[in-house]
Design a protein that fits this description.
With 195 residues, the protein is an all-alpha fold. It has one domain. Helix content is 77%, strand content 0%. It is built from 8 helices and no strands. The relative contact order is 0.20.
Length: 195
């Protein structure tokens, strides 16, 4: 028991509907684009110092380190651990006392603050809000883990291959994918209310 609550249910470690996993997969490119866009907008007001950005890259992308290892250590492992902490423990413990309209942004903002970087706060908090909403909607932490892991993976691949901007085709494809993900969630929610 976690604070006299069942651990698996509190942490939302329940089997997700496949629809929500599909939605997470479809939403992931657009969430990565959203993070990049918000980061670019924030940098207009709070530019990231070149030394900070380079130090971050030196830790993550070291010469000779294979891409699969970078993804495992800096994309998938953080997605798993951070989701267990934020959408699992924190959101799970507060879920009974706070309504979703307060809980979702609160957990998202806490997620942004947790990363201890004013330069990454807005994109990280926004992603945290999306992940919190997905966990509330699905009732399971696993779609958020999938979305978070894919988001981190995309950003690492962009840095690894030095992709500085997206093509119009990539942007349109990401938006179409996001629309399909939202449509899946709406369909699932509509089917639930019809039952």
């Amino acid at each position: 028991m976690l604070l006299k609550q069942p651990v698996l249910k509190t942490l939302s470690l329940v089997r997700p509907r496949l629809d929500y996993l599909a939605a997470a997969l479809l939403l992931s490119p657009a969430v990565a684009m959203l993070s990049m866009g918000i980061g670019a907008l924030q940098s207009l007001f709070l530019p990231i110092p070149a030394s900070y950005a380079q130090a971050f890259l030196n830790v993550v992308i070291q010469p000779g380190r294979p891409l699969w290892l970078i993804i495992a250590v800096f994309a998938l492992l953080p997605a798993l651990c951070e989701e267990l902490l934020f959408r699992g423990a924190l959101q799970g413990l507060l879920r009974k006392t706070l309504p979703p309209r307060v809980l979702i942004p609160l957990i998202g903002i806490a997620f942004g603050i947790f990363h201890l970087s004013s330069f990454r706060f807005l994109p990280t908090a926004t992603m945290g809000i999306v992940l919190s909403a997905l966990t509330v909607l699905s009732g399971s932490i696993f779609p958020a883990m999938l979305l978070h892991g894919l988001h981190n993976t995309y950003l690492i691949i962009f840095e690894y291959y030095k992709v500085n901007s997206l093509t119009p085709f990539q942007i349109v494809a990401g938006l179409v994918s996001a629309a399909a993900g939202v449509a899946v969630i709406i369909r699932v929610r509509s089917a639930r209310t019809a039952d």
